[in-house]
Amino acid sequence: xxxxxHQPYLxxxxxxxxxxxxxxxIPSWKDIDTIESLRRFEDAVVCxxxxxxxxxxxxxxxxxxxxxxxxxEEEIHALHYLCSPQLACDPRNHTVPLIDVIPxxxxxxxxLIVMSQLYPFATVPFRRLGEFVEAAEQFLEGLDxxxxxxxxxxxxxxxxxxxxxxxxxxxxxxxxxxxxxNGVSSEFIWNDRxxxxxxxxxxxxxxLAHYYPEDVQYEEDTxxxxxxxxxxxxxxxxxxxPFKLDVYQLGNVFLGIIKKFDGLEVLLPIAEAMTRxxxxxxxxxxxxxxxxxDLQINPDVMAQSIWPKDLPLDERQAIELSGSSSYSxxxxxxxxxxxxxxxxxxxRGSMAKKWPDAQLAYDKLAPQPRSYICPNTxxxxxxxxxxxxxxHQPYLxxxxxxxxxxxxxxxIPSWKDxxxxxNLYLFEDAIVCI
Length: 434
What we know:
Helix 4 packs antiparallel against helix 5 (about 240-260). By secondary structure, the chain is α+β, with helices and mostly antiparallel strands. It has helices at about 1-10, 75-80, 85-90, 130-150, 240-260, 270-275, 285-295, 300, 315-320, 350-355, 355-365, 385-400, 420-425, and strands at about 15, 50-55, 60-70, 100-105, 105-115, 120, 150, 160-165, 200-205, 210, 260, 305-310.
């Protein structure tokens, strides 16, 4: 509702939202009965996060992403600083480009930051050693740049590492369904990174970032924050160096990808050094970048193919024989590393300071996360926003509160054998939490 209500205002500021969020919108599937048929309609694609949405800049058709932020928190200030004219022109700066800041009418507490639309950095598979080296070098360079300016990202993890895919996916991609060009068609054509190099990689999501002046002691953080809960500092319950935290988080992303590929072993010592248990034993971002440069990998070696360890030999040969210019979306099935360990639990951060007993209760009672379909979800499976309630149902029950059947561990959809949308409205557990 937030986006639909603000659409006229955003249009007056030069940005057009997708048809679903416009005042005149009428669902395209009005006369369609089957659930599966909804997948044919772009305006059936639901916004995953209530605070983030893609848009088009009307003046030139440029695709952007808007994010609602608190004007008093770190993100907007960090982006203003890192994207200032004097820093934005530095090639070592890999901060997501900040295009605009839009104040919200009658709401001084929030604003919209407008950024370039970027693509998850590992969604399209790495196929050559040089492709991953290019990404690793730029992420280390960007982290070093932030640290030189006394900014710790604090969440330099998998989901916050992005790339400019304009050359790799020249036909563009859908923000919510990034494996499609238009959110509907299953055809997805992309270029081998090697054939369109150089590519540009970026950091996003600076809501946890913090600035530490030179004359201020920076080892003051004790909270468990970010996507990666394996950070050793979190178990010590004492102040830690936030810059070495960044190094660990980024190194752990590298390590997860390296271990899943044949052909990336040359980078393993760097990732292992970045993820040492003792923060003092880890290199700085600058030192890790120097370690990468010191490898002096031969250009012929850079061009060598790398393969997911679980990809059979016959499939590797088939991909190799098909050429390197473009591939079907079916080849995207083996790309992303298993990052389930990076899923943050609730109450991390400042709330953990105030209510440690609540975090302890969660750790004891929380079940394994229930699966959800995302971003293709329609009526019939838990949506991403609903999984919070399903995962916490046992804990809430222990506190004396029972959720509706849809959010209980034993839930099975009542309409299992039905395929018409109209009949779904006969079932209470088909009602989705908005």
